[in-house]
Amino acid sequence: MAKGFWPGAIVLALLAVMALFPSLFTGIDPDAADLNATLRPPSGAHWLGTDQNGRDLYARIVHGAGPSLLIGAGAVALALVAGVLVGVAAAQLGRTMDQMLSRSLDVILSVPGLLLVFLVVAVLGPGGGPASVGLAVISLPGFARVTRAEVIRLRGAHYVEAAHGFGWSRAQVVLRHILPNALGPVMVLATVTLGAMIVAGSSLSFVGLGPQPPTAEWGAMLADSQEFLAIAWWPAAFPGAAITVAVLAITVVGGHLQRRIERGRA
Amino acid sequence: MSPAPGETADITNTADTAVPAGAGELLRVRDLTVGFATRRGHVDAVRGVSLRIDRGQVVAIVGESGSGKSVTARSLVGLAGDGARVEAAELAFDGLDLRRVRGRRWRALRGRRVGFVLQDALGSLDPLRRVGAEVAEPLREHRIVPSRQIGAEVVRLLGSAGVPLPESRARQYPHEMSGGLRQRALIASALAARPDLLIADEPTTALDATVQRQVLGLLRERAADGTAILLISHDLGVVTEIADHVYVMKDGRFVEDGPTRTVLRAPSHPYTETLVAAALGRGRGPARGASPHGPAPAPDPAPAPGPAPGRVVLRAEGLVKRYRLPGRGAFTAVDEVSVEVRAGETLGIVGESGSGKTTVGRLLLGLTAPDAGRVEVNGRPWAELRGPGRRTARRRVQMIYQHPLSSFDPRYTALRLLEEPLRAERVPGTERARRVAELLGHVGLGEEVLGRRARELSGGQRQRLAIARALAPRPDVIICDEPVSALDAVIQAQVLDVLADVQERLGVAYVFISHDLGVVRRISHEVAVMKDGRVVESGDIRKVFEAPEHPYTKTLLEAVPRLHRAGPADSQAILKPR
Questions:
Q1: Do A157 and B406 touch (CB under 8 A)?
Q2: Rounded to an integer, what distance in angstroms lies between the CA atom of residue B51 and that of residue B5?
Q3: Tens digit of pLDDT for each residue in A97-152?
Q4: Which chain A residues contact residue B420 at CB under 8 A?
Q5: What is the band of B72 on the pLDDT scale with cuts at 50, 70, 90?
Q6: How many contiguous H segments (helices) and E segments (strands) does chain B have?
Q7: Alpha-carbon gap: B424 to the closest alpha carbon of chain A (Å)
Q8: Do B424 and A167 touch (CB under 8 A)?
Q9: CA-CA distance, B500 to B494, in Å (whole number)?
Q10: A186, B21, B128, B142: which has the fewest Cβ within 10 Å?
Q11: What DSSP string runs through A55-73?
Q12: CB under 8 Å, gap of 24 or more: what pairs does B209-212 form?
């Protein structure tokens, strides 16, 4: 077992539980403002201090885990499903279809990513869902290309040839033999992308395109804190640390899965 | 194990003490043990072997894969691998104690004084470098010739290794050359520095009979010039062809050694007998349909009187397949090929690599559409079959590959693999279990393999599993593309027996594609000889092999290195020098 896998996996599991059941970790209402206790430093009453509205930072980080992680996870899930479908279609439905789909992917890749996300959010309106969709659009070509290449590689494999010989239809061969064996590299890409997408999701919130106030979200918390950075470091440091820890855990676990898949293929 | 003749006992070695060399003695090894640290503890791959090689002598180590042959050879040049522990009472190369050689001195030795040729020529040549550069490297590295003359020397070496048009071949990349040419280029690079000792690990295993013969000829020439050769092989035919002295290896030990003729004529160890028997059965076994004459030492391939000519299950007429070449023109891979396969019979297709054998197989399977001509399965041409009808027809023609592992979905256990064709036909669960048990019985596999994945099975077990799976849809014909080429002689014989046995019991027909004439002879009733995409000769196996008419067939048959049996009365194996 690779070094750091278990700590990474435990952190990831904790974050997942936190996102699903934040009330297990804190009884404090994340949105309850107390104007008598603004910008208090970390203490026994407020473990991580309070923000400019006197809201408890620990509670906000716990409750922020869901929205923060959901943007990235949702984006990856959407991109994964759509990308695999597009990739399989490009590889299996003939030359014309392949050309059409591949060139469409090139078009997406030719537009700067951030611009495309802004466009999608502008059309759908700001919020967590639109941010996910926007990020999914820009990461879809990666999944589609990897899937297409894997399917084309496996199409010529002897075991796929043999499966045709048993009388399976083309769709059955794809579902039974090609897709399951093609998914390894796609899943690796998904874990790598997940980290990047969580950072990207927080960045969108930072510029106000993610979940709207008063929803607790790590990127938005960072944005709120910058005005007070000169007098209080904690409203910026803790949400930032939360993002860093989450991405680090995903990267470590993802890297481990990648090595396992590569060893399995060798 | 008998000590090599001329070996003097008990020489105490201190640092760099020159070992007194016998007349012409080049390499002496005593009690070599090579161990590896594995997860399951320390494993000795080589256990106390001793051998000796003289200048100009050809010494062979034979044994099946996993017996430690290659590890022995690699240890001699310090390439036993990471984590290997090499111990020996004596390890002397031309008076130099190899046990004390480290790092840079190894590099000076390897390539310069000891050349090394590996079986997998494609893997041993740098894919990004032209072949000429590969051959030039030892010349430059060891300053064999002045740099101005390197180009000319490379061409001379390639030419002497039997590479035609060496000037233009030197400018090609490995992937642009055939397997035989790559192997010869590799030998040229190993011989470039005019080493005293050439270690050749299965140098001809991947090669066709004619090319094999050229490569062996080249090795023999070098030996005549005084180069000592250590040949590692599982092929006794090759060994008898050129080796003076042979060591038989099993489970890390030499079980027998002596002059090649003596050892193979009168093997004293039962394992050697098995090897000789397997090689005899392969090289010169009775052809199908012929009654075996005399007591055969080989596992009998069950040559029952050929079944009465059955109905034609697979027929090809005037097949043509062309491939477009980059740039201009086209390459005709298959040219006007017509064959017929009858129920319960085997059609052998022989020829060198690149002769179009495999393409014919793919055309017969309906995986590739011919440019002209037609293939009929049970009287219906592939071209007419579409959709569900085509899928049903596919089950009638199955395929076995050279490397069965590549034909199994890596995620599946043996059970899933065998069930797969049955599921495709919607065979219900209880019936499936019965059919799987039946299939295992046909190929002689036990139930215990069912839970394992294919990569956990041995080579022979894998090929049995492939046969069982091909039988699952109850096909009329199985196309076998080089099904035993990757296996050792003993396992080869077993797999061929399974194939013959299954045919007798189930009446399935085979199209048996191979470059190995001995194997084809053993299994086939009819044979088609292919050259450059055409069938140059075909007909009854005995007629074609015993009275070949086409000059190419004659060349092929003459090129096969093999053990000869003296005659019907004499069951002893004797060697017939050519």
A1: yes
A2: 10
A3: 999 999 999 999 999 988 999 999 999 988 889 999 999 999 999 999 999 999 99
A4: 163, 166
A5: confident
A6: 20, 23
A7: 6
A8: yes
A9: 10
A10: B128
A11: -BHHHHHHHHHHHHHHHHH
A12: B209/B352, B209/B515, B209/B516, B209/B517, B209/B556, B209/B559, B209/B560, B209/B561, B210/B352, B210/B555, B210/B556, B210/B559, B211/B179, B211/B180, B211/B183, B211/B184, B211/B352, B212/B238, B212/B559, B212/B561
A167:B395 CB<8 A: yes
Distance CA(B421)–CA(B425), nearest Å, equals 7
pLDDT of residue B298: 39
Gap between the Cα atoms of B260 and B248, Å rounded: 10
**Chain B closest-CA separation from residue A178 CA (Å):** 9
Rounded-to-integer distance, Cα A118 and Cα A134, Å: 7
**Cβ–Cβ below 8 Å for B410 and A180:** no
- Tell me the backbone φ, ψ of residue B351, rounded to 5 degrees: 160, 165
Q: Backbone phi, then psi, for B211, in 5-degree steps?
A: -70, -40
Q: Which domains does chain B have, with CATH numbers?
A: 125-194 (no CATH), 313-560+568-575 (3.40.50.300)
Give the span between the Cα atoms of A31 and B350, in whole angstroms.
81
Q: How far is the first Cα of chain A from the last one, in angstroms, to the nearest whole number?
A: 18
* pLDDT tens readout for residues B37-47: 766 677 788 88
A181 → closest Cβ in B406, B409, B473: B409
- How high is the ipTM of this complex? 0.77
* pTM exceeds 0.80, yes or no: no
Highest mean pLDDT among A134-138, B384-388, B459-463: A134-138
* A162 closest CB neighbour out of B399, B410, B411: B399
